[in-house]
């Protein structure tokens, strides 16, 4: 690619997509695949612009045995970091690099995730967890990990809301059993002790592997390996190269320890529970919105009846208008790709029978608890809309008669509406219990129980538990929220709210009690 020195080469790789991942996870293989070689699996995560791509190529050159004197540099990636800044990244898909070097007894699998904190926002980062879930679930995917490498700059001297959010986003993906596999690769190092970066890691209370002195395990790199050689700076470049080579030596010695290997099963459970929680809270919000609409509809009908009592007594018909909630299918063409081909009841973009919100072949979050066979995957989803309709008293009675048995013809119309309301409340209670159960499960198995992903739902769920009289559940979530109120978590939560705040505020104004009609204030009037 460049005559150098150093001469830059692009490695030729066999490229394909991993089965079952909706063409979102790429696999690039260099060399002849040899299943007899000892294979090490590394997952790379970090903020956009930290030099993750260069670190991956550094690992490849280490495996190839490239030395400073060779004046060569090999790249397996196709992204040029010199052309991007911290707010952009050309990598939008997870890429799995498989490297087989004939002379080396160890093969390497590197899972490269797109940079966190992308300008496209919170939902873009959620794509990463969706893709990892597919990668860990697929038969042809990844089933164990030897190390999770968090890439960050060595000279960082302050921690921003964005960086806290990225820490939370990464940690909330993994199971508790991965803690000892989490190590830091510190880039753009000047060779001095990375005091500032280590202070930030300690301040953020990031669970990770520690050395015999109980200090955060880290490795230093300079990221200047492919810079054009100049006699004036040759010794500086050599020193930088040797620092990275020494770090790689120590890192691969760490990988040789057999106890490092961890199954991804607990992490996969965390990813699936995250998805269930997101779907459950979404449906719960919709149920509360529907409950409010139903109560308004009931109130408007009763007000119309009160105003027209004389006409009812004279058996005269009359017209009135009510606002009623109706479910409609809407297109998801402009949604994120992972919400486009959604089922009508829940929005997971995969075969319904394989969806993580299914248990015992039934959906755990849709209102009907449907069998997976009735979940249709299409580019539409259900939304609840409010419409103003004009109806007559005679139509109201006919509609009532159609929905009641012959023996119940004398039952009050109000009771029918109240039964509909009670059904919605019961469904809301079940969803609320489901959401609470998922959060408690995540608090036991997730590497970071009080991550911003979980905290963002608590202000919504705690008042709902209070309304239901679930004191123990309310206390448990309040304890979790108290941990989130600590300074180490506030910044991450603020960053999430920057992405989701406007949409969440609009929805919460509708469903969290503002202008909410108390059912006890409804006039009970026999018809």
Architecture blueprint of SSEs:
Elements: E1 7-10, E2 14-17, E3 25-30, E4 38-46, H1 52-64, E5 72-75, E6 94-99, E7 106-112, H2 122-137, E8 144-145, E9 147-153, H3 161-171, E10 182-187, H4 195-203, E11 218-220, H5 234-255, E12 262-263, H6 265-307, H7 309-313, E13 319-331, H8 337-340, E14 342-343, E15 358-359, E16 362-363, E17 377-378, E18 380-392, H9 393-402, H10 413-445, H11 452-468, H12 471-484, H13 487-511
Parallel strand pairs: 1-5, 3-6, 4-7, 4-9, 9-10, 10-11
Antiparallel strand pairs: 2-3, 6-7, 8-12, 13-18, 14-17, 15-16
Helix pairs in contact: 2-6, 3-13, 6-10, 6-13, 10-11, 11-12, 11-13
Can you tell me about this structure?
The chain has 527 residues and is of the alpha/beta class. The chain folds into 2 domains: 7-263, P-loop containing nucleotide triphosphate hydrolases (Rossmann fold), CATH 3.40.50.300; 269-521, no CATH class. 42% of the residues lie in helices and 18% in strands. The protein is built from 13 helices and 18 strands. An 8-stranded mixed beta sheet has the order 2-3-6-7-4-9-10-11, sandwiched between helices. A two-stranded parallel ribbon has the order 1-5. Strand 2 (14-17) and strand 3 form a beta hairpin. The radius of gyration is 29 Å and the shape is elongated.
